[in-house]
């Protein structure tokens, strides 16, 4: 996505930063002041214009960026030992400021700055090694540079290092050490670390289980606008935890806040809460409201929302009955690999509901679901092989799929 930022004598076209950059900046500031070339000062909300921090201010002997008349050019006069200039030139190549993205050049300049001890450059070059971006994948190099940056107090590096320890990525898995690094990042105000450490506390991974402490961390992250933290609070109150009773009202409150920020999972869960009275939110199912929330999540590609919305459309519950639309939503979910949706698509093809009858397509989708271990698909596929429907009759295949279905059903 491109951001277009206009000034009286300056126009910058810059790419929105990736998540790891946003993490770094979110935890370090609430607003930024950028002085344009025209000497006018502008103050921006950090959440909206974080990218500017990456390119300003520049030292006189560093990088000069001129982006007048929509024709950005980059001129660097970096000295061999100017680590800050080298880092900023790496940033310019990394994110394509005033030119094309060139990750190999970014890695080159980051590394030169990193070797001089520049903490942010160490973090950035470590990420490039971790993502195999501009350099070959090298988890050991990634671990080296990210560890150096983490020890210099870069909260994003602390967060990434904790994640590597948690996943055993390039280093032996150690949930206890991961928790320590998450805690350091939390001390710097990193919302993603607050969320991650909260999850560890909630589940008792690497730390003593403490759902109440998890709630506090989630709430701090949520106040910084992190929708995933809002969702985590919603889930915790929806299902409850040791010392934290279920609270449908609190669950709905936090799900709604996350949903309003675009969280597809939160939108889906709001839909569920409106059709499942045992969740404690609604005395009676409200399929119309559920369909609205399922639709929001489905449009973002949420598989379960697509399947549930399709079912409501197929049965005409809360929405006008429309088997054609139901099939389209099931197909989208099936194409994402959901075995339940694949069985439903196969059924639609077999019965000619919402789509022209096509037994060959039915067999194809049943096979896809059957290979994922879906017992219902395996039973139906065995029947099609036995009867020669949509596929050549094959008693041996029918017997094999029957046995697999029996095993899956145990």
Structure overview:
The chain has 410 residues and is mainly α. Among the domains are: 149 residues, Alpha Horseshoe (Serine Threonine Protein Phosphatase 5, Tetratricopeptide repeat); 109 residues, Alpha Horseshoe (Serine Threonine Protein Phosphatase 5, Tetratricopeptide repeat), CATH 1.25.40. It has 20 helices and six strands. The strands form three sheets. A two-stranded antiparallel sheet has the order 1-2. Helix 4 packs across helix 5 and helix 10 runs antiparallel to helix 11. The longest helix has 15 residues. The N terminus is likely disordered.
- Quote the beta fraction: 5-15%
Main pleated-sheet profile? 2 strands, antiparallel
CATH topology of the domain at 1-149: Serine Threonine Protein Phosphatase 5, Tetratricopeptide repeat
Whole-number average pLDDT? 84
Number of helices: 20
Features:
Serine Threonine Protein Phosphatase 5, Tetratricopeptide repeat; 60% helix; two-stranded antiparallel sheet; disordered N terminus; mainly alpha; globular
Q: Gist?
A:
The chain is mainly alpha-helical. It contains 20 helices and 6 strands. The chain has helices at residues 19-26, 51-55, 83-95, 103-114, 119-131, 139-151, 155-167, 175-187, 191-203, 211-223, 227-239, 248-260, 264-275, 287-299, 303-315, 323-335, 339-351, 359-371, 375-387, 395-409, and strands spanning 2-6, 11-15, 31-35, 41-45, 63-66, 73-76.
